[in-house]
Amino acid sequence: MSRRDGHPVEDPSIDAEEAACRLLLHWQAAAAGSQEGAKADLPALPSLAGVIADGPQLEAAREWLVGREAALFLAIDGPFDARATCDGAVVGHDADPDAIRRRLGAACILGARCGTSRHAAMVAGERGADYILFGHEDGAANVEEIVEILRWWRDLFVLPAAVVGIRSIEDARAFRGEGADFLLPARGQASSLILAIDRMLAA
Q1: Rounded mean pLDDT of the chain?
Q2: How far apart are CA 147 and CA 66, in angstroms?
Q3: How far is CA 92 from CA 48, 121, 157, 160, in A?
């Protein structure tokens, strides 16, 4: 899941059967964790799979990713610049993957935000999303509900699943144990949680 500027760093495909659980970050979390001493607060992060950034933040996020084996994802919530250079995008569950790939490139890796809607997840998968994001970015989703959704998803589908809005290491362990492929901390979480999740995933 790691490509940047068109050059493969590793196999960009997302394989739910082979890939270990990995860390995703919002660019704001990466930037906040690195304000003091460049990359000191958030070092190598061996479990990092990718960073999600809005259009205006894309270049800063790209610079931060130099030297890291991780992908750069554009967060799309409306109109976007088709000239953006990125490895993929995170879109709404009702987005048209084919239309986005026509603008960003056929190899664009697409994740679909589906909240806690099982129907939205199934539709997004059928329409061509590469992976599904469950939960809410502010951490508002019920942990038990997400666990049940992960169990259901794993029983029926092979498409990778990310859980977003993680607020504690205990929740991260629970989601990993239920087969989540990617973990995305809630917005505003301290770098200590990011580091704790990374250590857990890299162990």
Answers
A1: 88
A2: 34
A3: 23, 10, 20, 16
pLDDT digits (tens, 9 = 90+) for 150-199: 999 999 999 999 999 999 999 999 999 999 999 999 988 989 999 999 99
Spell out the domain ranges in the chain.
3-10+19-202
Q: Which two tokens stand for residue 100?
A: 């986005």
Cβ count within 10 A of residue 1: 26
- Per-residue model confidence (pLDDT) at position 8: 36
Measured distance CA(109)–CA(177) in Å, rounded:
25
User: What confidence tens digit (pLDDT) does each residue in 56-75 have?
Assistant: 999 999 999 999 999 999 99
pLDDT at 9 over 60: no
pLDDT tens for each residue of 117-142: 999 999 999 999 999 999 999 988 89
8 A C-beta contact, residue 125 and residue 159 = yes
Q: Does residue 188 come out as left (phi exceeding 0), alpha (psi in the -120 to 50 range) or beta?
A: left
Q: DSSP secondary structure string, 134-152? A: ES-TTS-S-HHHHHHHHHH
List the CATH code of the domain at 3-10+19-202: 3.20.20.70
Name the burial class of residue 103, with classes exposed (0-12), middle (13-18) and buried (19+) by CB atoms within 10 angstroms of its CB.
middle
